[in-house]
Amino acid sequence: MVMRKAIRIPFQKAKMLIPMEDRFVAEAMLGKLAKWLRMMGYDILYQRSYREEDLARLLLGGRRLLSRRVEAQARHPGVLLLRSDHVGGQLKELKSLGCLKLDRSRFFTRCLLCNVPLKDADPEAARSTLPDYVFHENPSGIRFCPECGRFFWPGTHRNRMLKQLEEWGL
Ligand SMILES: [Zn+2]
What we know:
The protein has a domain at 20-108. It is 36% helix and 11% strand. It has helices at residues 11-17, 31-39, 52-60, 72-75, 87-96, 123-127, 132-137, 156-167, and strands at residues 24-26, 44-46, 64-67, 80-81, 119-120, 143-144, 151-152. The protein has a 4-stranded parallel β-sheet, with helices on both faces. Strands 5-6-7 form a 3-stranded antiparallel β-sheet, with no helix packed on it. It is globular. The structure holds zinc ion (ZN). Zinc ion is lined by residues 111, 113-114, 145, 147-148, 150.
């Protein structure tokens, strides 16, 4: 481990060094999109409806609202309004808005259910839970969710996802 001496960085400069990362909150009819964004490693909350005060709190906390409701624009000027009713089209819209980075190293780094970042799993600890073939394929790629305890690993699901993205032209 390399020890580094702490260096004080002036606030403005420090702010610039932190990469801007979009975090989202999705409204009704965008559940599929939320799942895809989560697979891509994005922090995205989704439920069918929100109380107005809860939504306001999330937006104040820096999340960007994804909505298909035109009327959302009046209440939330920063909303990312999506017009397509298809998840492939919605991802393309986000990309053209500059809000979608396809960084493959980030794919499958977040729990699809809990929305929290996954951690590397100890293969030995995972062995008692997972089928044998997982360990023959790629034991070092196994991750787990610290929230729900589910295991995730690169497999056919990931390949299907990459193929689908290609078909959508993403
Ligand atoms: Zn989880």
